[in-house]
Design goal:
Layout: H1 2-6, H2 10-21, H3 61-73, E1 78-83, H4 94-104, E2 111-116, H5 120-129, H6 146-159, E3 163-168, H7 173-182, E4 190-195, E5 204-209, H8 214-225, H9 235-245, H10 250-263, H11 267-276, H12 278-285, H13 298-307, H14 311-320, E6 328-329, H15 330-335, H16 339-347, E7 352-356, E8 361-365, H17 368-376, H18 380-400, H19 407-427, H20 434-453, H21 457-477, H22 482-501, H23 505-525, H24 530-549, H25 553-573, H26 578-597, H27 601-621, H28 626-645, H29 649-669, H30 674-693, H31 697-717, H32 722-741, H33 745-765, H34 770-789, H35 793-813, H36 818-833, H37 838-854, H38 865-877
Parallel strand pairs: 1-4, 1-5, 2-3, 3-4
Antiparallel strand pairs: 6-8, 7-8
Helix pairs in contact: 5-6, 8-9, 8-10, 11-12, 14-16, 14-18, 18-19, 18-20, 19-20, 20-21, 20-22, 21-22, 22-23, 22-24, 23-24, 24-25, 24-26, 25-26, 26-27, 26-28, 27-28, 28-29, 28-30, 29-30, 30-31, 30-32, 31-32, 32-33, 32-34, 33-34, 34-35, 35-36, 36-37, 37-38
Length: 878
């Protein structure tokens, strides 16, 4: 159909290839309201006090299964885990079991909440704290009356069914009375209770928890000390001895293993110390290390532990109190020369050893209650200083980190800690501090970069908006401060980029124009400042990007040419400045992109070749510079794009293969570099596109499958990376295209459906992401095409109608978006060909095409579209 409609020239083939992989998204639903009427946060409320032990959690599978059966069976208002009081010690593992259950069933509940119930007062305070910004983030969080905040939390629970609430440490009658007073006020969720009591009220089923069995306890000691203990041939026997002598008590085993790890001794040596110096060893792990201790109380236990710390370790504890309860990677302590202080905190179990990134990165975790107690016990004068120290600790790490290589995963792990510190700074009272505000600006901006590079554009936009507000407040204080003016320019540029990627063209254009105004004002102040000249060229380039996305090609070209003029002048001023040369390279490529879209292949080729000459010169200047090697591969790909558009398949293939060779060399140089792996998959896709166009279906399929293999590996490496998930769906669609061309309809349908499944998951994750919605409509149209070929008319119509519905929602959201208007034309024509009110569908398509032509937004490549639609409509009417 498309060939009849658009012709069989090279421009149509290029457009079709782009159409198969271009992004698409519709407006999302408003999130459910909270009890106070405010839309709920998209994140899952949770305040679990510590992370899962992972593979170290042993011997509790039966208890987990019993909990699941009891909580899913209904008929009770709660489940209690009753623990034995072994030798008067706590630590049998009641709380850990409850937490492990919550982590294991994270997807089954809309919120995972935790309340300590050691006393009526503690429960009331913890219930009120649920309203705070770290958990439910309710409007009542600023109330000074705990009862009002507690009531707000209860209203949220009753208005948002499907939560899991852990009531922890119900160990005596007073705690039981407090729990029983609360329980009737809870509706719509599951309550999990832990405590030492062995008799529970009606409606609460009980599961008695025993000590760990000998095999599980032995395995725990061996696994927990692996890599830290001094190994001996009889480790297995000695671990069994420790398990037996400690009688399977979970906390005692954990602290014995921690003692071994910190002391770097063998299991046999630990046993010798335990037997010969029991009091000394027992003191190392007794009540001062128990976070929940009925006999002593948490605050007194905490104070006893802290009294033992050196000044340096105490200062570190105070910094960690302002961070998130998530694990903290060791590299952060190394950067601050705080490893010894960290080890001292570990010695007293104020922090615990954990692993991050699937066990590849060591770190520590701090119990949420330890953090809370550390903050509450801090003198008011010390609190501000400790918070400032924490900021000064984090900011340099974020400033020095790039968004590629090893830095991005590290910054991703540190992101929740930066967010926690920011929330404490925002909540702290006091006069406006410009130095502190600028540090927050840096953190907000870098957090946005982290989220943007992981595909979480919505959160990135939120962070960038906060950075803008930080910068605006600074500029309001001192408009003459050029550093703060430039901070505002950078923040506006970042949020403009995020809005553009989200498909919000007008918002993006508004942000970039504000940035341009700042850059112009700075340049008027000092026209000789090359950095400000460069900023001006950046703004013009960004504006060109948005105008091009909105279909305003002439405006885009004008902005790009103005930016090019500035960059050419800078390059002429200092030809040895490689950054300015690279900027010139970027501008030439942008101009080539517009010329190519206008159908001016020769002009595009000239711009790309000029850019290639710069890239070659830079790569020759420093062959080891991987960024410049990558630029060279980009230039070769762009030249291949033009040659393919001009119908020069062999020339295009030659350019793509040269680019592929560079990218293969880069990927071989650093196989762990995910960006280079992704670039390699892009080159393979380009080669597949040309092979398909040349009629080499098998060669195309081979290239696409190699690209798919790379993208599948990336997606497996980080399933939460939405960009890599989208790349995977693109590869599946490409393979579907080839299979369809080869007449293998079943194989094509299978590939398209797999791609559709990925895109549906992305669209569900963020319904407001227009790129993902548009992708979804492409997949639906592809499936409709196959169903048409298979003669399944109803299935084809269903797919086409769903795709049209998405397209209509997108076009309604932004009528100026040319791509979305053209999508509507295609969807209407597909439905007409499938027999769905053909005349009405063709008239709708024609009206859209004529409106685009009247607005000057109909691409030259689509020049014959209107005539063809009129011809088809006349045939249908006849």
């Amino acid at each position: 159909m498309e060939r009849v409609l658009f012709g069989d020239g090279p421009a149509f083939a290029e457009w079709r290839a782009e159409f198969r992989t271009t992004p698409r998204v519709k407006r999302g639903k408003v999130p459910p309201a909270t009890a106070s009427g405010r839309p709920s946060s998209p994140h899952k409320p949770r305040n679990l006090p510590f992370a899962s032990l992972g593979s170290l959690f042993k011997g509790r599978s039966n208890e987990l299964a019993r909990l699941q059966a009891a909580l899913s069976g209904g008929g009770s208002n709660g489940i209690a885990i009753a623990g034995h009081a072994l030798h008067g010690l706590g630590g049998i593992g009641k709380t850990q079991l409850a937490i492990e259950f919550a982590h294991a069933h994270n997807e089954d509940y809309r919120a995972l909440l935790f309340l300590p119930c050691g006393s009526k007062e503690l429960l009331a305070s913890a219930l009120a704290a649920l309203a705070g910004p770290d958990v439910l983030d309710l409007p009542e969080q600023h109330e000074t009356d705990d009862a009002r905040r507690a009531n707000a939390a209860l209203r949220w629970l009753n208005a948002n069914p499907g939560w899991l609430l852990i009531l922890d440490n119900v160990d005596d009658e007073a705690a039981l009375a407090a729990m029983e007073a609360l329980r009737p006020r809870l509706r719509g969720g599951s309550v999990l209770i832990t405590g030492r009591l062995n008799a529970w009220p009606a409606g609460v089923a009980s599961i008695e928890l025993d000590v760990l069995d000998p095999d599980s306890a032995t395995a725990f000691v061996l696994d927990r000390t692996e890599g830290a203990r001094r190994r001996t041939p009889d480790d297995g026997a000695r671990a069994a001895d420790i398990a037996r002598e400690l009688d399977g008590l979970a906390l005692a085993l954990a602290q014995a293993a921690a003692y071994v790890c910190v002391s770097r001794i063998s299991l046999g040596q630990y046993l010798e110390r335990w037997r010969s110096r029991r009091d000394e060893v027992a003191t190392w792990f007794d009540r001062s290390l128990v976070s929940y201790n009925h006999d002593v109380g948490f605050a007194a236990t905490w104070a006893t532990s802290v009294e033992r710390l050196s000044d340096a370790a105490r200062a570190l504890l105070e910094r960690l109190a302002f961070m998130a309860p998530e694990p903290i990677p060791d590299v952060l302590f190394d950067a601050a020369d705080a490893s010894e202080s960290r080890d001292e905190l570990m010695r007293y179990s104020l922090v615990t050893r954990t692993d991050l990134s699937g066990g590849t990165l060591p770190g520590v975790g701090m119990h949420r209650l330890v953090q809370q107690q550390s903050r509450s016990a801090m003198p008011s004068g010390r609190r501000g200083a400790a918070l400032e120290e924490t900021l000064d600790w984090l900011v340099p790490v974020f400033v020095s980190g790039s968004m590629t290589g090893e830095a991005l995963p590290l910054l991703t792990l540190l992101a929740p800690h930066a967010e926690a510190v920011i929330s404490h700074v925002d909540a702290s009272a006091g006069p406006f501090d410009t130095g502190r505000r600028r540090k927050l600006l840096i953190l907000h901006g870098t957090l946005g970069d982290v989220h943007a590079n992981r595909g979480n554009l919505r959160q990135a936009a939120v962070d960038f908006d906060r950075a803008v507000r930080d910068a605006e407040r600074l500029v309001d204080i001192d408009p003459a401060n050029t550093d703060w003016q430039r901070d505002l320019f950078v923040s506006l540029t970042r949020i403009g980029d995020a809005e553009r990627r989200l498909g919000n063209g007008d918002a993006a254009l508004n942000a970039h124009r504000k940035g341009l105004a700042i850059a112009e004002a700075l340049n008027l102040r000092d026209p000789a400042n090359p950095e400000w000249q460069r900023d001006l060229s950046v703004s013009l380039t960004k504006i060109g990007d948005v105008e091009l996305r909105l279909g305003n090609g002439d405006a885009a070209l004008d902005a790009y040419r103005k930016g090019l003029a500035i960059r050419a002048a800078l390059s002429h001023r200092d030809p040895a400045n490689t950054q300015w040369q690279r900027d010139l390279f970027v501008s030439l490529n942008r101009i080539g992109d517009v010329e190519l879209q206008f159908g001016n292949g020769d002009a595009a080729l000239e711009a790309y070749r000029n850019g290639l000459a710069i890239a070659e010169a830079l790569a020759l200047c420093d062959p080891a510079n991987t960024e410049w090697q990558r630029d060279l591969s980009v230039s070769l790909n762009k030249i291949g794009d033009v040659e393919r558009r001009l119908g020069n398949g062999d020339t295009a293939l030659d350019a793509y293969r040269k680019g592929l060779a560079i990218r293969e060399a880069l990927a071989l140089r650093d196989p762990a570099n995910t960006q280079w792996q992704r670039n390699l998959s892009i080159s393979l896709n380009r080669i597949g596109d040309v092979e398909l166009r040349l009629g080499n279906g098998d060669a195309a399929l081979d290239a696409y499958r190699k690209g798919l293999a790379i993208r599948a590996a990336l997606a497996l490496r980080d399933p939460a990376n939405t960009q890599w998930q989208r790349d995977l769906s693109v590869s599946l669609n490409r393979i579907g295209d080839v299979e369809l061309r080869l007449g293998k309809d079943d194989a094509a349908l299978d590939a398209y459906r797999k791609g559709l499944a990925i895109r549906e998951a992305l669209a569900r994750r963020d319904p407001a992401n227009t790129q993902w919605q548009r992708d979804l409509s492409i997949s639906l149209n592809n499936i409709g095409d196959v169903e048409c070929r298979r003669g399944n008319g109803d299935a084809a119509l269903d797919a086409f109608r769903k795709g049209l519905a998405i397209g209509e929602a997108l076009a309604l959201r932004d009528p100026a978006n040319t791509d979305w208007q053209r999508d509507l034309i295609i969807s209407n024509v597909k439905l007409a060909e499938a027999g769905d009110r053909p005349a009405d569908r063709l008239r709708a398509a024609l009206a859209i095409a004529e409106a685009l032509q009247d607005a000057g937004r109909l691409a030259p490549a689509d020049g014959g579209m209107i005539d063809e639609l009129k011809r088809r409509l006349a045939e249908d009417d006849g």
